[in-house]
Write a structure and sequence with these properties.
Structural class: alpha/beta
Distance between the termini: 41 Å
Strand content: 15-25%
Number of helices: 8
Helix content: 25-40%
Low-confidence stretches: 1-17
Order of helices and strands: EHEEEHEHEHEHEHHEH
Strand order of the largest sheet: 1-2-3-5-4-6-7-8-9
Mean pLDDT: 91
Length: 259
């Protein structure tokens, strides 16, 4: 069954963005041509930017728990295998999912070219939170992967309002002076339940900074770090295990913090 299309906001024209709207539209067109689980929702930022999100209802429950899923650099909200697995499996475990398109750079851009897009990503995260609340969410969690995790960390260190937990997958600590990617400072400032997951053979700026992230999170009583052995940044071997770790952690964390 093709994705149904819903529109949020009245202005459909893209504003001038720092990213590459044409690449985003190409991804959106390709996604909508493929059979997939869920509903395509066009969200709107306050600056007038329009972007695609993929929503999947929670099974057997009302959508009172929604997880916002943020993909890696140079990708899209149905990225395989990990993002698709997250957005389709979490709804079987009480969490509706809203996977959003993050801003893109041109094909072949270096990872550091994504760092200036943190502000634009923040506006999209806010639009996703607003949409989740609009459809009845009472608890909102965030799961970010790679640069998506870094963008989420930047947001939550400054403004965690309406978010109850954050799972960061392959959270990089770039060797950069740019304000938007000061990951260790962000981790130190986040007081939400924080799951820090990485792969044994992940990116060097993930594996080589794991101890630094643990130190940065030491004042957070609900910070936890997990390493997935036998896999690399793509998680093509153990992505079902990783997703299970995420939904198990969410269930345990939310239950403990409700007591």
């Amino acid at each position: 069954m093709r994705l149904a299309i819903a529109f949020c906001g009245v202005c459909l024209a893209c504003s001038a963005l720092a990213g590459d709207p044409a690449r985003e539209q190409a991804y959106a067109d390709a996604i909508q041509q493929q059979p997939a689980i869920g509903e395509a929702v066009w969200l709107q930022t306050g600056e007038g930017g329009r972007f695609l999100a993929l929503f999947v209802d929670a099974e057997k429950t009302a959508n009172e728990q929604v997880v916002i899923v943020l993909h890696d650099a140079d990708s899209h909200p149905d990225q395989q295998p990990l993002i698709r697995e997250l957005r389709t499996v979490l709804p079987r475990h009480r969490w509706a999912s809203l996977a959003i398109q993050l801003p893109l750079r041109e094909a072949g851009a270096a990872l550091e070219d994504y760092y200036p897009l943190v502000g634009e990503a923040d506006a999209r995260i806010q639009a996703a939170i607003d949409h989740a609340i609009k459809i009845g969410a009472k608890q909102i969690a965030m799961v970010g992967y790679g640069i998506g995790a870094a963008m989420a960390a930047a947001r939550l260190s400054r403004n965690p309002v309406n978010v109850v937990a954050f799972a960061a997958i392959s959270l990089p600590v770039p060797d950069s002076s740019q304000a938007g990617v000061q990951t260790l400072s962000f981790v130190k400032n986040i007081n939400l339940p924080l799951l820090d997951v990485y792969a044994e053979a992940d990116w060097p700026d993930v594996t080589e900074t794991a101890a630094k992230r643990r130190v940065a999170g030491k004042e957070n009583p609900v910070y936890r770090q997990i390493r997935i052995d036998g896999d690399d940044h793509a998680y093509r071997q153990n992505y079902p295990l990783l997703v299970k770790r995420v939904y198990s952690w969410l269930a345990t964390t939310i239950m403990e913090n409700q007591q």
